[in-house]
Specification:
Structural class: mainly alpha
Radius of gyration: 19 Å
Strand content: under 5%
Number of helices: 3
Largest sheet: none
Order of helices and strands: HHH
């Protein structure tokens, strides 16, 4: 496989990761809007349904993002050094992206919890 073909696969993997991340941000934004606008009025069963759908969706999309970035990082190891740039080394930091997405998921769930359980004014 030529370097041009490898770079094409790397760029396709990066584009897929960017698409998955955009979907992830859409899910997170939608969840936060729902939590803020109607979270305090939802029944416990409704919150459970929303949370399960959110968790399954973001985990699925998060795994796809992680896999696409991991694939790009793997393929980068086969490209000749004369075609790599210092910026392409950032592809190897895909575990940090995975951890950041996991943190965002948890922050969203905490946000819903805080909306549903406001602190009492004394």
């Amino acid at each position: 496989m030529t370097d041009a073909e490898l770079w094409e696969l790397i760029l396709i993997s990066q584009a897929n990761a960017a698409t998955y991340f955009a979907i992830f941000l859409t899910l997170v934004s939608g969840y936060l809007v729902v939590a803020y606008s109607v979270g305090s009025r939802l029944l416990g069963s409704q919150v459970s349904i929303v949370n399960v759908l959110f968790i399954v969706s973001v985990l699925t999309v998060g795994f796809a993002t992680y896999a696409a970035l991991s694939r790009a990082s793997f393929l980068l190891g086969f490209v000749g050094s004369e075609y790599t740039s210092p910026l392409s080394a950032g592809i190897n930091y895909y575990p940090i992206a995975g951890l950041a997405m996991l943190a965002m998921k948890l922050i969203c769930l905490v946000f819903m919890w805080q909306i549903r359980h406001p602190k009492r004014q004394s």
